[in-house]
Specification:
alpha+beta, Substrate Binding Domain Of DNAk, Chain A, domain 1, 9-stranded antiparallel β-sheet
Length: about 160
């Protein structure tokens, strides 16, 4: 009888573990684009921890910093989503508008917290969270992947 109870307890615990689900992201993570649209980076319900990397670019010649407005929620209009804050990437190598490519990684930890890091040409860039300054920050645009980025993702 004692063995049967012990076996039943072990099986019950194994069943609970098998039926438990990993933590999931409550709200999607998106970024605002120039013009007020939102681009989703990480879908709602994604298992966490998780991350996404996107390439951003400058909108003016010789711009040395990018502003990224991170949003939470699902939708295509930034104004209808919840602001998760502004992040500023400093130290972008200057160039013509649209030429610099800065790879920004958005990492969501197991508690749903967000960390942002950035790289340009194998250089780590300084990223800091900042308060919105009454509309003075303008969101950076996502850049189109160039041929070398496509080659890395889709080897033939």
């Amino acid at each position: 009888m004692r063995r049967a109870l012990l076996l039943a307890g072990v099986l019950a615990l194994a069943g609970c573990k098998r039926n438990s689900r990993p933590p999931a992201l409550g709200d999607a993570v998106a970024v605002e684009q120039p013009g007020g649209s939102a681009t989703q980076l990480i879908a709602q319900g994604s298992e966490i921890p998780t991350s996404a990397t996107e390439s951003f670019t400058t909108s003016r010649d010789d711009e040395r910093r990018l502003a990224i407005h991170v949003l939470r929620g699902t939708g295509r209009t930034a104004g209808k989503l919840h602001s998760d804050g502004w992040w500023v990437v400093d130290g972008v190598q200057p160039g013509k508008a649209g030429e610099p490519h800065v790879h920004v990684t958005f990492e969501v930890n197991a508690q749903g917290g967000l960390a942002v890091s950035a790289r340009q040409d194998d250089r780590k860039l300084k990223v800091s969270r900042t308060a919105p300054d009454d509309g003075k920050l303008k969101p950076a645009a996502l850049s189109e992947p160039d041929d070398s980025e496509d080659a890395d993702e889709d080897p033939e």
